[in-house]
Amino acid sequence: MIVIDGKKAAAELRQELKQEVSELKSKYNKVPGLTVILIGDLAPSQIYVRNKEKSATEVGLKSDVIRYPDTVEEKTVLEKIQELNSDETVSGILVQLPLPKHIDKQKVIEAIHPSKDVDGFHPMNVGNLSSGYESSVPCTPLGCYLLIKKIEPNLSGKKAVVVGRSNLNGKPMTQLLLKENCTVTITHSRTKDLKAECLEADIIVAAVGIPELVRGDWVKKDAIVIDVGINKTDKGIVGDVHFDEVSNNAKALTPVPGGVGPMTIACLLKNTIDCFKRSQI
Ligand code: NAD
Asked: Is 52 one of the catalytic residues?
């Protein structure tokens, strides 16, 4: 069984991106820029943003963080986004979620120009992805997709089961697998027999938020299993897949931590560079 090393894959991707940034710098005499807006002082958000900033700087991107207290008015944030939309030095804009209750998340997402939407949450990018057009793709499913392709470059005709239908993970994951000509089943909390669905799958992507939901006897021999879940339990952080049980059947499996997680930030950097490249055409 292959334990898919997300840390290594992310380090390799960052190395490729660093090289690409250096080539873009020579060609255009400027580098892609990522601006993150951070509202409030939630500890996990502070950590994510610090890691994003560090990784962006490491690959040679211009990186800025704009901080607001959690009392900031929605209008102030929307005006800042408009300013960044017309700033040529900014290739990508990310507003760190979650937002304080008085700020409308959807309004904020839609204020970001689709060409700078490095999270891939703008309805225009969601629509482009589902129509098979070029778009920014949400970072976590993009990371899952790259890990799957490393194990199995030709996915055509494979049966994939995505567990969870969130806009953040399950739905875009489904679109990426469809684009690769997989036959995709998307399952969720109302699915009647999740085990039976999973047992059909050559590829399972679990993005649910329930510790160790996917058990060993749910997984067909030689399936590729990608675990997006991050769940705090008494045993520490575990995924949505029972690692020990599933590792007896699967061909390849991502650990938690150290699987999908490290790819997410690397894909954010990739999205920023891709936004920059599209803006130069
Ligand atoms: P979400 O809560 O938005 O969606 C969960 C989905 O799971 C829903 O579509 C729901 O229908 C489905 N679901 C709930 N109970 C189910 C059940 N019993 N059987 C089948 N489906 C069920 O969650 P999300 O934002 O997609 O996040 C999912 C997990 O991924 C969480 O643990 C989150 O922390 C983690 N996550 C990890 C990363 C990363 O970088 N690795 C990024 C984002 C989220």
From this structure: yes
